[in-house]
Amino acid sequence: MKFEAGDVVYLFIRNPHTQDVANVQEAAVVKNPENPAELAVFVYETYYPLTDDLAIYTSLEEAESAYRDFFEEESTA
């Protein structure tokens, strides 16, 4: 999927203090301040490089559906 600076996206964020707690968070796609030729995701006052390792969704509904699928499967395993 191709993103541009200014896009609004949704991703899963894990609680750094409790790794089994996560939520869907809105984020902005921005130019990476450390390398303006690359994009980053800006969330919670932090820049994360935009890589294939991030599960990014273009709509809140899509993110919440994936969240339910992933965490409901995880809790029943």
From TrEMBL:
Superkingdom of the source species: Bacteria
Protein name, per record: Transcriptional regulator
Lineage per the UniProt record: Bacteria, Bacillati, Bacillota, Bacilli, Bacillales
